[in-house]
Each structure stands twice: as structure tokens, then as C-alpha cells.
């Protein structure tokens, strides 16, 4: 493996996690239930019926985890706050004990010389809000803005970098259109209000954060470049439709103040009854950065007759896949980063890779170590893809890999392993893998 080329001196290196996937302590300190608590405890919803009641027990072992971050040498740690730990019902009462936990975590990170980058919403909506209609209701965005104000009032004197939402497309599509994630709705395109109300929440929260401090605010979207399966115009139309839904729906309103053309889905974006007059002005409040979550591109073909969607997903032939079955195509990340710059021009803020990683399960070797060479190869190739994009003019400020440690991988339970650190399923003890040492060495080498 050749030496990694040098990145800019101020380029930031980090890792990312999320609250529900690692914290555990679901009945601790007054935390209320989230939609993922009930969903994960419903038989048949999660692979192996795994639950996250303990997860990685990060709530009790956060100091140990901060020490791992210090050993790794990261500049930035992206984590999320549990809305239901801070405002248990999502509506009113503020739980001071929950805020105390994040207070302690932020202080521990700063003491270790690590910049905290909290995400305010990573899919774990308080159950009480869901019982009132969840993201289908406009006032959920207003409740999110109030929660943001509570957090900013407590942490804003020390936290300067915030992410409002994580992957609103996945939360809409997997949680509300297809039902494979919490809250488990199967609404199809009737889930579009979920997209708009999440974006409205982002815009309102951005304004709240700037009222409380000189904060830098990002939105994190997932991106998957759309590849037509052939030169057939019908396949190109399928790819364009997918691009509009996955990419444009959550980027155009933020950067351009308008929704993309969704006519391929039979949707007239000029006649959406859930969009109020000033909403797009709020949603397009200028950002300080755009978070990019990249795992793979998507190959699209024209759908068979009778399908509800104007595309169908097909495999990339002859391409290696991760344990999740996701194709390993590092060049897609270069394509994405340079493509965003070409598509949005001066409207595009600086970019951050806020997630990029791979699931590979490995067993300990004869020496007791977890030798995950496949993960090292994946990360090496994708980081080089980021470097290639920078040399082509993309303004990328940092790279955060997913994830620090093996965790609760949503509907896959504990069956998918993305971590640089192995977590023993019984003891929750942490065991850094070979990829941990490799990433620490890369970061150290970039600093000269």
C-alpha cells in the first residue's frame, strides 16, 4: 500500500457515531422512549430481534470511549444527542439530567483536545411526538426548534460546530415510505410531508443556533450517485428520477430555495399543500457546510410494467460488495464531490465527509487481534478518492469515518460491524482492530 498523499494542513480527521446506536441506558436519568425503542422491541422488526437497551453502554463508558478517540488522534468527533434524553416527550419538560450527560461528554472531548460536532437528530424521534403525528405534522418542526434552543443554551458556549439532521432521505424513505425503519410506516409517496417538515426543522434550528452563538451549522445528507444501467434513454430517465428523489429533494430546497422536478413521480412541486409561503426561505437559510454521507453509488434501470416508482435498482456487475451487500466503488465518492460542485456552483458551501465506512465481520486471530484488512483497504481507497476530488477543486474540509465502534445497526441489529473497535457482545469491552491502528497512523502521518 503506497503512502497516502498529503491533505491540506487544516484538513480535519474524525469519526462518527449516533446516540441510539451506542448509548444504551434507555431507562436512565429520565430519558423518554423514542420511536426506535418501541420499534426494536416489536418481534420481527429487527434481525435476530436484537434490542439496543444496552447497545455499547456508551452512556456509562463514555470516558473510555473519549480515551479511544484521543489514542486515535482525531480532530473531530461527530456524535448525536438523544432528543428524548433531553426533552423526554419532545414537547415540554426539559430533563436536566440528560443534558448533564452531554455536558460531561463535551467537556471530556474538549479536555482531550477534540472538537465536538453534535448532530441534533439522528432518527430517534421521541415517541410522544410520533403519537401526535410525528414528522407528518408541521408543529414537529417547531418542537425541534425549541429542543435546539434548549441544547444550544446549555452547550453553545463550548460547541461551535453543529449538524441539524442526519440523512433525512433515509428517515423519510425507510421509516415512512417503506416501513423497514422506525416508525414503520408504509406510506409510499404520501410520506413527502416528512421530507418537508424535516427540512423546515433544519431551517428553523439553523436560525436558533445562530441566535445563541457564533455557531457553524451543517446539514448531513446521504448521497448515492445515480448510474444508468445502460445507454437506453429509459434507463437514463430512471437514473434522473432517482437523482431527483434521493439527491435533489433534500439539497435543492436548502441550496436553491426550491424543490426539484418530481413530475416523474406524478408530483407537482408547485402545488404541495403542506408548503407554507415562507417555508423555503427558512429552509434555504445559508449553511456553513454540507455533510456528505457516502457508501456507494446506485445503478438504475427502467422499471418493469406496473411498478409504482419510475426506476428499479440493479446490481453493478463484477463489483466486490461489503457484508451489507453494498458495492465497493471508491471512484463514486470523487464523482459525487466534484459533481456537487458542478451542479450547485457558488451556492455549494464547504463539504465535510460526515460518514464513510464499511461493514465487515472479523473474528480474532491466533494473536487475539481483529485483523480487518478489508476495512483498511476500503478506507484507504475512499480517502484517496477524497484527495482526488480536492485536487480537482472540491472544497472538502474534513473526513469522518463511520464508525468508532461496532454498534446497533438499526434494523440489522448487531449483525453488521462497521467499527474500528470491536465491542464484545457480552461484556461490552472494547478491542481496537487493525483498522484502528491504521487510521491512527494515517492521521499521525498527515500531521508530519
UniProtKB/TrEMBL annotation:
PROSITE patterns from the UniProt entry: GLYCOSYL_HYDROL_F1_2
Gene Ontology molecular function: beta-glucosidase activity
Binding site for substrate: 21, 122, 166, 295, 402, 409-410
Gene Ontology biological-process entries: cellulose catabolic process
Swiss-Prot/TrEMBL catalytic activity: Hydrolysis of terminal, non-reducing beta-D-glucosyl residues with release of beta-D-glucose
Active site residues of this protein: 167 (proton donor), 355 (nucleophile)
Pfam families: Glyco_hydro_1
EC identifiers of the protein: 3.2.1.21
Keyword line: Carbohydrate metabolism, Cellulose degradation, Glycosidase, Hydrolase, Polysaccharide degradation
GO cellular component labels: cytosol
Family matches, as InterPro entries: GH (IPR017853), GH_1_N_CS (IPR033132), Glyco_hydro_1 (IPR001360), Glyco_hydro_1_beta-glucosidase (IPR017736)
Family stated for the protein in its record: Belongs to the glycosyl hydrolase 1 family.
Protein name according to UniProt: Beta-glucosidase
Organism: Stackebrandtia albiflava
Amino acid at each position: 500500500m503506497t503512502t497516502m498523499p498529503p491533505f491540506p494542513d487544516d484538513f480535519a480527521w474524525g469519526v462518527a457515531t449516533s446516540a441510539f446506536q451506542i448509548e444504551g441506558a434507555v431507562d436512565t436519568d429520565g430519558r423518554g422512549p423514542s420511536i426506535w425503542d418501541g420499534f426494536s422491541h416489536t418481534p420481527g422488526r429487527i434481525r435476530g430481534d436484537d434490542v439496543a437497551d444496552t447497545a455499547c453502554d456508551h452512556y456509562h463508558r463514555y470516558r473510555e470511549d473519549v480515551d479511544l478517540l484521543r489514542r486515535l488522534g482525531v480532530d473531530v468527533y461527530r456524535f448525536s444527542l438523544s432528543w428524548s434524553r433531553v426533552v423526554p416527550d419532545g414537547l415540554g419538560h426539559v430533563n436536566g439530567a440528560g443534558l448533564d450527560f452531554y455536558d460531561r461528554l463535551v467537556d471530556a472531548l474538549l479536555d482531550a483536545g477534540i472538537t465536538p460536532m453534535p448532530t441534533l437528530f439522528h432518527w430517534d424521534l421521541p415517541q410522544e411526538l410520533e403519537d401526535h403525528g410525528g414528522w407528518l405534522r408541521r408543529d414537529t418542526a417547531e418542537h425541534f426548534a425549541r429542543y435546539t434552543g434548549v441544547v444550544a443554551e446549555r452547550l453553545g458556549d463550548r460547541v461551535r460546530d453543529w449538524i441539524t439532521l442526519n440523512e433525512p432521505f433515509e428517515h423519510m424513505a425507510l421509516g415512512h415510505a417503506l416501513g423497514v425503519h422506525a416508525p414503520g410506516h408504509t406510506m409510499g409517496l404520501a410520506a413527502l410531508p416528512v421530507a418537508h417538515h424535516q427540512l423546515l426543522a433544519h431551517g428553523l434550528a439553523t436560525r436558533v443556533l445562530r441566535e445563541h452563538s457564533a455557531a457553524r451549522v451543517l446539514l448531513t445528507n446521504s448521497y448515492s450517485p445515480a448510474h444508468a444501467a445502460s445507454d437506453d434513454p429509459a434507463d437514463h430517465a430512471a437514473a434522473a428520477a432517482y437523482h431527483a428523489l434521493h439527491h435533489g429533494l433534500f439539497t435543492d430546497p436548502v441550496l436553491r430555495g426550491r424543490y426539484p422536478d418530481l413530475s416523474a413521480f406524478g408530483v407537482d412541486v408547485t402545488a404541495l399543500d403542506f408548503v407554507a409561503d415562507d417555508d423555503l426561505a427558512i429552509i434555504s437559510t445559508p449553511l456553513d457546510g454540507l455533510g456528505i454521507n457516502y457508501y456507494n453509488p446506485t445503478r438504475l434501470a427502467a422499471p418493469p410494467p406496473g411498478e409504482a416508482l419510475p426506476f428499479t435498482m440493479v446490481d453493478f456487475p463484477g463489483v466486490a460488495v461489503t457484508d451489507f451487500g453494498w458495492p465497493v466503488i471508491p471512484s463514486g465518492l470523487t464523482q459525487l464531490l466534484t459533481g456537487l460542485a458542478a451542479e450547485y456552483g457558488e451556492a455549494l458551501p464547504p463539504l465535510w465527509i460526515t460518514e464513510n465506512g464499511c461493514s465487515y465481520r472479523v473474528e480474532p486471530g491466533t494473536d487475539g487481534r481483529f485483523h480487518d484488512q478489508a476495512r483498511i483497504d476500503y478506507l484507504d481507497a475512499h480517502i484517496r478518492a477524497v484527495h482526488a476530488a480536492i485536487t480537482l477543486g472540491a472544497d472538502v474540509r474534513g473526513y469522518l469515518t463511520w464508525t468508532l465502534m461496532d454498534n446497533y445497526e438499526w434494523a440489522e441489529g448487531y449483525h453488521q460491524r462497521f467499527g474500528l473497535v470491536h465491542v464484545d457482545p457480552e461484556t461490552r469491552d472494547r478491542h481496537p482492530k487493525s483498522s484502528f491502528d491504521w487510521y491512527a497512523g494515517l492521521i499521525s502521518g498527515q500531521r508530519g
